[in-house]
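Hello,

Our lab assistant flagged a job as stuck in the queue for most of the afternoon. It eventually completed. Since we weren't sure the result was trustworthy after the delay, we are filing this so someone can double-check. Below is the sequence as submitted and the structure that was eventually returned. Let us know if re-running is recommended.
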Amino acid sequence: MASFVPRSGLHGKRVWQAHVRRRGYPAQVRTFDTKAEAEEWAHSIESEIRRGVFVSRVEAEQTTLREALDRYQSIVTRRKRGANQEQYVVAAWQASQLASRSLASIRGKDIAAIIQDKTDQGLSPNTIRIHLALLSHLFNTARTAWGMESLANPVDLVKGQHPKLPGGRDRRLVGDEQARLLAAARIYGGEIGPIVSFRQRCVKRLATVQIG
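-- returned structure --
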């Protein structure tokens, strides 16, 4: 059965603490700005319990992003080949405004705001995508390996807002550039000459097929 208790929050503002207790399940407690929000949350928890699909959110609600990053760095990052480079990405998230937030409280709109902020700072699309990839993997790891099955991945919720990478270069050899390239490859020696020559023959064959 759910109960709702008014509390004094930040700067004396009244908040509402919702309690859900059912035999055989851990007690669920969460604080909201309004009683309506508290009631909506409590009803959703009770509904999940009745339907037998309830998964405790306690750990996800009590673990901050900073704590999760520390755990991720010590368990996951250190095993990667690029561990040294990834530490800079971890440090960037630890310094972000989301670091003190619980994992369960981070929403898609928070990630969208971070993307816009990093874009305004002048970070390249590829750098932003690297940062998002780490955060996404952290949430997936927390859900699959750390027992936080109820946790949603907020990065996945805003995939359409991820920065797009610039298109690759479309550069074709003109004039005597092909002959000069082959000559330079032969002078360089080793396997470079045959590789470049083979590559050029493949390109010509592909062009012939496309024209035909």
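-- support follow-up --
The delay was a queue issue, not a problem with the job. The result is valid. The radius of gyration is 27 Å. The mean pLDDT is 85.
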